[in-house]
């Protein structure tokens, strides 16, 4: 009879575990318990003692439990005593996963850079991402590189928490230098400003409640120059969590901050996505930043909630008129751009030589005049495939103009116009336009005062268009695989070898 068959024939020896348990016996069992893998070795074929058949049952636990094997105890010890470097050699795939599941995600980043363990870096990402939804997006993407993502999150956390006075005196610069091979996307959600006033001795500390921007400088962003592999950067000077206490200085930054950032950006030759949000952007700072961005191959540019208003429309126009033709996505949501600023901005779109596919103007008071000037700027051009004018205070007449834009501007495929009062006339016009335009993929018009019957009709037409797109896509794929020409539409103009499953 084989060892395995013999073991199956043995009844478990059960020991009650009162408070005064035979601890020597229990400790010996934990230490010398043989794993299933070990039991299958040829050297174990003649074994007569089976410690793994013993089950300890505590009085307060009706179910049996199995103390850990020696191998498990060793992996636990290696994880809890880890102090930098690569993961220990000789671990099986299962043990590597166990090690990654036990290793402390709060260890300093400099001790973790040599750790190649998918399980561990996935845990780091789950712990450090701001929301669970954000993590789930990464988790569903089979191309997610967990180590790069985890290192970038740890680096961003270090920058956010480091006191600005010690940026060049502590470990921050060393961290950025050694992390640069892994950091491609960096998102800093809140930068800490310098203390405004150092209280003199024997005097109470006090604060300025309405500081000027020159009193609100932050740590020198020149330090970011070491991250030469950056393809995407997102910065926010303003508070991300209002529960931390509001102070006006948290939303203000100085011209010196922008100049220091520009000095670092000179080294970002691979940068394609730039975002600055929740920050008070005056025209002089915007100009300084746009002058540098115009020399780079930026594909996505975002300035949401940056207090853009007077005198910024022309600056944006100058930028888009001379920037790289690679710009595809421009997000200006949540600012104070009115009709005049949109008119100025429209001049830049009118001469842009590239293909601006997505424009987000949501939550700007552009008004009906802004809709008219924007429509005039893109008329008879291939710009703007997706437009967002949600909450733009355009009224019923402005909403009607947006619907007309959907009718005559054929490149427009996706339209967001939530919280816009279309009313009965606008709803009828939207249905009329959609019936004729089979290319529209999506129209979001929630809270637009539409009749229920109009809402149903709009959704029905959009479903028709979706089927049309799917059919055309399948036809194009079939033609491509067979080598034929595409048809034209009548309506168109160390754990690598045993890593976790993604």
UniProtKB/TrEMBL annotation:
**For bias kind Low complexity, which ranges apply?**
479-502
One Pfam short name: LRR_6
UniProt signal peptide: none
* Region called Disordered, residue ranges: 471-502
Query: What domain of life is recorded for the organism?
Result: Eukaryota
Protein name according to UniProt: Ran gtpase-activating protein
Q: What organism does the UniProt record list as the source?
A: Aedes albopictus
